[in-house]
Amino acid sequence: MSLNKLRLSMAGTAAVIIGVSTIGLALIMSSLGTLNLTSLILLAAGFNLLQWLLAPYLINLTYRVKPMSPDQNPELHSSLEELSRRSGIKTPKLMVSSIPIPNAFAYGSPLSGSHVAVTRGLLDALDVEQVNAVVGHELGHIKHRDMHLMMMASFLPSLFYIIARSTMFSRDRDRGSYGLVGAASLLVYFVLSLANLGLSRTREYYADMHSAGLTPGGARKMGEALARISQATYRTQMLTPRQVGSGSFKALFISDPDRASRDLSEMHGTGFAGDSEFVDQMAARRVSGFESFLELFSTHPNMVKRLRALRALESG
Asked: Residue 194 sits in which domain range?
């Protein structure tokens, strides 16, 4: 996917979110009145703000994340500092998660600062260049302020969900009209949720492009890293299914671990080839309409499309 297409996708998604939200709020205001709507907006805003501020601490508990000292992996610390300098951002805190699946994620808040976390599984499964490509991807999320952007974007769906819950089960004497408002709010919530998923997928493409531009051959390294992550995640899930959990924060991951087996089947099956050969096989594969439909409900792009976009950067 080219930069121009990404920008058009971002603009189109933003237009959907703004347009649907404006129409939905206008209709609800005419039915509920400003006072009730104001209370619900404050409730939704407070909930999202609290979640944003506390999320880093919840993530640390969920994925058993701890700071990685320079003594543990001096080479990775040095790479993080250099890649942060090239990205034009302050070096985030380097963290390590003890979960076995190979993955990485960027997270943070005004209270905790920015963090980049890598899992033990990632350090075991990928070579040094591939790990650096993954770190570059996460730095792209920090540079683009994706954590804050997605937090703000999630406010509107949560607002309409709260309105739906508050009105559909209301005991008010205007229960009929409240029920209609609740049903309409639920529909708006569904549309906005799909738009937010689309926004999340677009941000993944942006982060991939950022990583590809940080080092010579970056697109190749990023593509091979994603291919190896899918392969290693599938193996890990087959060997230790009960130890692998993605949880509610899986949208943060560089690759959705719950999609590992599907990613492999969408690319070329579950046979394991070399990294470069694996990506080459992807380039010739057609994405079916059903696979594109399933992508609408995913936080991450279809892996075939994602690797193909990186291959286009590499050859372009």
From this structure: 3-315
